[in-house]
Each structure stands twice: as structure tokens, then as C-alpha cells.
């Protein structure tokens, strides 16, 4: 599985620094020129506007997405999801 995470501040992804997983995690910084375009393409497809936005894909098939406009921590939701998947 591939995991795509858009972020605009490194504090949004700090929980993933020491997180071990066999899945490929692709970080997309929406503040960089290249990242802004990639993040916009990914988020606009799913009608998401804010960072962080997380998409899990298996090949070309989307498995699960994490996004909120409330003050929830979607990175923690991702970690919980991955931990439950491995158990």
C-alpha cells in the first residue's frame, strides 16, 4: 500500500517521524512549488481543502482517506488504522 500525506506544517506529521510501517509513505509539502500542485491535484479530487489530507491506495485503488475541517488529528487516526490492520 502507498500512503500519501499532504501537509503545510511539519508539526502536522511529527507523530510519523518514529512510526515504523512496511507501507510506502509519500509526504507532499503543499508549501513548495512542486508540492503545491501535487497536493492540489490530490485534494481537489476528494473535495478536500485543508492539510493534512491522507490517502491510502493499493495500486490505483483508493482504500481509505483521512481528512477533517474540525480540530481532529488525522495523523493519529492513520496510525490507529495501520495498527489495527497489522493486528
Describe the structure.
With 87 residues, this protein is an alpha+beta fold. It has one domain (2-86): Glutaredoxin. The protein contains 2 helices and 4 strands, in the order ββαββα. The protein has helices spanning 33-45, 74-86, and strands at residues 2-7, 24-29, 53-58, 61-66. The protein has a 4-stranded mixed beta sheet with strand order 2-1-3-4. The model has no long low-confidence stretch (mean pLDDT 92).
Give a short synopsis of this structure.
The chain has 87 residues and is of the alpha+beta class. The protein has a single domain (2-86), classed as Glutaredoxin. Helices cover 30% and strands 28% of the residues.
List the keywords.
four-stranded mixed β-sheet, about 30% helix, about 90 residues, Glutaredoxin, alpha+beta, about 30% strand
Which SSEs are present, and which pair or pack?
Blueprint (H helix, E strand, L loop, with lengths): L1 E6 L16 E6 L3 H13 L7 E6 L2 E6 L7 H13 L1
Parallel strand pairs: 1-2
Antiparallel strand pairs: 1-3, 3-4
At the first level of CATH, the class is Alpha Beta
Beta content comes to 25-35%
Distance between the termini: 16 Å
Helices and strands, in order, run as: EEHEEH
The total strand number stands at 4
Structural class: alpha+beta
Mean pLDDT: 92
Q: Characterize the overall form.
A: globular
Give the tally of structural domains. Answer: 1
Largest sheet, strands/sense/barrel: 4 strands, mixed
State the low-pLDDT regions, or none.
none
Number of helices: 2
| CATH topology name | Glutaredoxin
Strand order of the largest sheet: 2-1-3-4
Amino acid at each position: 500500500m502507498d500512503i500519501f500525506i499532504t501537509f503545510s506544517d511539519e508539526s502536522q506529521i511529527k507523530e510519523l517521524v518514529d512510526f515504523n510501517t512496511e507501507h510506502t509513505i509519500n509526504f507532499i509539502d503543499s508549501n513548495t512549488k512542486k508540492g503545491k500542485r501535487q497536493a492540489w491535484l490530490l485534494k481537489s479530487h476528494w473535495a478536500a481543502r485543508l492539510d493534512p489530507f491522507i490517502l491510502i491506495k493499493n495500486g490505483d485503488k483508493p482504500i481509505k482517506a483521512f481528512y477533517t475541517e474540525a480540530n481532529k488529528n488525522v495523523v493519529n487516526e492513520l496510525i490507529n488504522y495501520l495498527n489495527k490492520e497489522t493486528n
